[in-house]
Design a protein that fits this description.
By secondary structure, the chain is mostly beta strands. The protein is built from five helices and 43 strands. Strands 19, 20, 21, 22, 23, 24, 25, 26 and 27 form a nine-stranded antiparallel beta sheet that branches. Strands 3-12-13-17-18-16 form a six-stranded mixed beta sheet, with no helix packed on it.
Length: about 700
């Protein structure tokens, strides 16, 4: 902590910052070395293998296979390329793979970063943008200084709704929270509650509404007026989500300015506005944080707000037209702008992308300054956070063209093989401090954040793999032949993201539609005409196995644990002959025996053809304790209860065409159920779904 404090207090002195960061890094390297040596000494005892000889052979095969697939070659390349290894780019010292520690190295200097970016530019031939990046945002309105630390919520238990456990707030109410992927890791959303107040971000009305959660007496008690775009069409500010922690509310989104007032560069910045909620009737903005790139996501980890942004660089200028520092990510708190140091910038050697993923942490109880900020040269498509680990995934298109070849019949041809890979980069987060840990490249693409998971020191990933082969016959007029194939695969990775187990060649010519990891078992759905629900045993990370395959019409676009031995699927019916999707479908799978999974009961929801649950899990309300499931579909909000072995619709809210619940949220506080839409909050009895009140949002 003393280093972090000194680091924050001396960020105007680049040399002091570098010395402090180096000292912190060395402490962390020693700790990582110690921890990983312990893990390696324990691993042989973790898995029982009948034959020692078989174990040795298996280990040799794994090592050879892994090294071949994830080669960090020591041979000197002809030129520094986008997929060069750390050793090639930085030398042995920068590799951090020595002494058994496989952690990515920070760049040694801005100049070295520039060389890597130019090498990637030369290989990919991509046009980049990103010049003299200036943070263009007005300073926040003046706020009264804090006189005392903010009170922390007196929370007895806060776990995700998948377990059906309710939260007890400051005054003892039962209430539901955001549908989070990982227990105890809160995700940002457009609606939050602390059991006393409800906070609703309304982008269309440019307001955050603060309502008393008081059943039939629910009312708006305060608002936060959001910044509106200026008259100039080139300025825009999009508020995406919020995070709540005690008496702190964080408004998150992307600010961009394409006016002539700003130089030619990446104009997008992620912002996090901090509000003091000590007086709910008049919230005060006390700080504004910005980091380069568009807003991706945020998590709350042990009282720390973790913010991820995606800083893309596309321009028509050569990469060396400006100093490399002009392209380096910047962060700012109010008017204090800082360019990240080389010590804070990593390079993903498995990626060829010239763009940065920026990760920052803010003490959520305070919210007035950054605790840590790091960046990696590599893109960001999906983010998974287990608390101690942050996995950044990005897609990368791959294409290879052969030289002209001669077929047996004498004709000449050229082959072009293409596909999409996933680049994974792992950060660790400890007490708000961010460090790079590992990287890898996998064949295939992820569906969403649920395609990734961390469990017992291993990382599991489900992908859709595709290979496209094009043959061009070059004699005379070119003629073309195509051969495309796809399958699905599951990888198990170790601490260094090296594959140690794999299941491939699943669901030929299909793609992944949903994934859920539950301890030692993974469930995932693929689809073409019917819905194969796979269950996989991951208890032995080195030898994962498919346990069962269930084929039923339609598919589940989202999977949600729903009590002991049950898995809820929300998706769509489909025509078995053609695979055409029809109504929204609820499925309850019996997973009490993972080797014999079956659909216990289902419901095809009439008058519901579409739900955005498939794209945003936070839209779903699922409470196991009350056996209640709710979500928006089409222009309605549906509420269901599980009764015995069936789903029963107990509520359907229709407010007319002037209201829209496509992205509506549902939550309960005590005996009331609140449905928050874009134009109104409807309050119902949680037991009967009888309407108690309606509050217009205007």
């Amino acid at each position: 902590m003393k280093f972090k404090e000194a680091y924050r207090n001396t960020n105007e002195n680049i040399h002091a910052r570098k010395d402090l960061l180096e000292e912190i890094k060395m402490e962390r390297v020693e700790r990582i070395r110690s921890e990983q040596q312990k893990k390696r000494s324990l691993k042989p005892w973790l898995i029982a293998i009948p034959s020692v000889a078989a174990a040795a052979a298996a280990c040799i095969a794994i090592v050879v296979g892994v090294r071949a697939a994830n080669l960090r070659t020591n041979a000197a390349p002809e030129a520094k390329s986008a997929d060069a290894s750390y050793t090639e780019l930085f030398g042995a010292e920068g590799s951090s793979a020595q002494n058994g520690i496989h952690t990515p190295a920070a760049v040694a200097s801005y100049e070295e970063l520039g060389e890597v970016m130019k090498a990637r530019r030369a290989k990919e031939g991509r046009r980049l943008y990103g010049a003299d990046a200036a943070v263009s945002e007005e300073a926040p309105t003046e706020a009264e200084p804090m006189e005392a630390p903010m009170p922390m919520p007196n929370t007895v238990t806060m776990v995700d709704s998948a377990k059906g456990v309710l939260s007890l707030g400051e005054t003892g109410q039962n209430y539901s929270g955001t549908n989070n992927q990982v227990e105890g890791i809160d995700e940002a959303d457009i609606v939050k509650t602390d059991g006393t107040w409800i906070y609703a971000l309304n982008e269309s009305n440019r307001k955050v509404y603060i309502l008393s959660a008081d059943g039939e007496n629910t009312a708006i008690v305060g608002t936060i007026k959001l910044k509106t775009p200026e008259e100039n069409d080139s300025y825009w500010r999009n508020y995406s989500e919020m995070m709540l922690y005690g008496d702190r509310l964080y408004l998150l989104g992307t600010h961009s300015d394409w006016s002539d007032q700003v130089s030619e560069e990446d104009r997008a910045f992620t912002f996090a506005e901090t509000y003091d909620l000590g007086d709910r009737t008049e919230p005060k903005r006390i700080a504004s944080h910005r980091q380069q790139g568009e807003y991706k996501t945020a998590r709350l980890v042990d009282g720390m707000l973790v913010i991820v942004s995606d800083y893309r660089i596309w321009n028509w200028r050569p990469i060396d037209e400006f100093p490399v520092t002009n392209y380096c990510p910047k962060v700012a708190t109010d008017d204090n702008i800082v360019t990240l140091l080389p010590d804070e910038i990593y390079i993903n050697p498995d990626s060829g992308e010239n763009g940065f993923t920026v990760v920052t942490t803010v003490d959520a109880a305070d919210g007035t300054e950054y605790d840590s900020h790091k960046a990696v040269l590599g893109g960001c498509s999906q983010v998974y956070c287990s608390g101690s680990d942050l996995l950044i995934a990005s897609n990368e298109y791959r294409i290879e063209q052969s030289d002209e070849q001669t077929a047996e019949d004498g004709r000449h041809f050229v082959k072009i093989v293409s596909g999409t890979d996933t680049n994974l980069f792992r950060f660790t987060i400890e007490n708000g401090w961010i460090e790079a840990a590992a990287s890898t490249k996998l064949s295939g693409t992820l569906l969403n954040q649920f395609s990734m998971d961390a469990y017992n020191g291993y990382y599991r990933v489900v992908v859709t793999r595709n290979e496209n082969e094009e043959t061009i016959w070059t004699d005379g007029i070119d003629t073309y032949e195509w051969n495309n194939s796809s399958d699905c695969a599951l990888y198990v990775l170790n601490d260094w993201l090296e594959p140690v187990g794999e299941i491939g060649d699943l669901a030929k010519d299909e793609r992944v539609q949903s994934v859920r990891f539950m301890g030692d078992v993974a469930y995932f759905v693929t689809f073409r005409q019917t819905d194969p629900l796979f269950s996989a045993d991951l208890s032995d990370p080195y030898d994962p196995k498919i346990l069962s395959t269930l084929k039923i019409p339609g598919f589940s676009a989202y999977l949600h644990p729903f009590g002991e031995g049950r898995l809820l699927g929300v998706g769509f019916d489909a025509d078995e002959e053609h695979g055409w999707t029809e109504n929204v479908k609820l499925s309850m799978f019996d997973i009490s025996d993972p080797s014999d999974v079956y659909e216990a009961f289902k419901l095809s929801v009439k008058d519901a053809n579409y739900t955005s649950v498939q794209y945003n899990h936070k839209i779903l309300f699922a409470d196991v304790a009350s056996q209640t499931i709710a979500f928006p579909a089409d222009n309605k909000y549906f509420v269901f209860r599980v009764e015995g072995d069936s789903f029963r619709e107990i509520g359907r809210i229709e407010l007319g065409e002037e209201y829209w619940f496509g992205d509506g949220r549902g939550l309960f506080v005590d005996d009331a159920f609140y449905v928050i839409g874009s134009d109104a909050v409807v309050v119902l009895s949680f037991e009967t779904m009888e309407e108690l009140a309606s509050v217009e949002l205007k």
